[in-house]
Amino acid sequence: MDRHVGRRTAHHGALAALVLAATAGGGSAQGARGGLEPGQDDSAPGIERVVSLLPAATKILIELGAADRLVARLETDRDPGFASLPSAGDVLSPNPEVIAALEPDLLIAWVGAPLGPLTDVLERSGTRVERLAIDRLADVAPAIRTIGGWVGQRTRADSVAATFERSIAETRALGRATSTAGGSRPSVLWVVSADPIVVAGPGNFLSDLIEVAGGVNAAGRTRSPWPRLGMESLVGLAPDVIVWPEGPGMFAAVELASRAGWQTLSAVEAGRVLAVAAEEYHDAGPHLAASARELTRRLGEMRETR
Predict the structure, then answer these.
(1) Which residue in 129, 112, 168, 115 sits closest to 284, CA to CA?
(2) What's the pTM value of the predicted model, to 2 decimals?
(3) Are 120 and 187 members of one domain?
(4) How would residue 229 be classed by pLDDT, with cut points 50, 70 and 90?
(5) Average pLDDT over residues 114-119
(6) In this structure, are residues 36 and 149 in contact, taking their beta carbons and an 8 Å threshold?
(7) Which domain, by its residues, includes 273?
(8) Is residue 87 part of a domain?
(9) How far is CA 266 from CA 186, 257, 272, 303, in A?
(10) How far apart are CA 201 and CA 221, in angstroms?
(11) What is the domain-level CATH number for residue 258?
């Protein structure tokens, strides 16, 4: 059985860590992208041992049928199929000793990961070190093709990327039609962290998902992609709908009605809170095609009850 079957992860914590690092001034969650230029061929059939320090890249490798090349897991990964693999640390705190000892052919890291001297050590030993940032929904298909090139799966990657792009286009058309039929597009607040309160602002893949699903990002006019908000600012946004990811570090959505400040939001009072599984939304990988369809369906159902 493939190691990735039955995959359930705690990658919400990885996104929250990146976001909190950015909002605390420890770097930006946005960044330059590694990868191929259009038309560039970079197939690498000799890549057999891979360490991925980026949850989205791990999901792409799984989708490409290359899960068996992974020789380590993230500390936040709770997939039982990867339980026997050593931990390579986390996105922002990789374990250089473990990674070096594994002698990978390829290391994939977030563009802002603090690799320090590990990069030089690995490159001297022949390891290819690549950094990647998948900030927007439109970055997913190019990332699939890029990673496919790195691991010698270009044909499979082209097919997966094309399917993803087609699915997103179809869902966007459905979201647009649904919002037009409903008379207005609901304002949607996507909460990323409950303490401190961090939400999805403009210019990130969660904001893109809201738009694809037929909504408007309630925090779309903020200056940061991941703004920290006080309760007063949160109430001032007056969202029609709140998306609440359930995962590590988040209290259950049902508790919002009894939480100070939160219970004053009209979306909470009216029961317009969408509880979602964090692992299905909080990594920008090919799985977001299905997540976008589900979000569109649920927003449409909630719009009918407004």
Answers:
(1) 168
(2) 0.85
(3) no
(4) very high
(5) 90
(6) yes
(7) 183-304
(8) yes
(9) 13, 10, 8, 14
(10) 7
(11) 3.40.50.1980
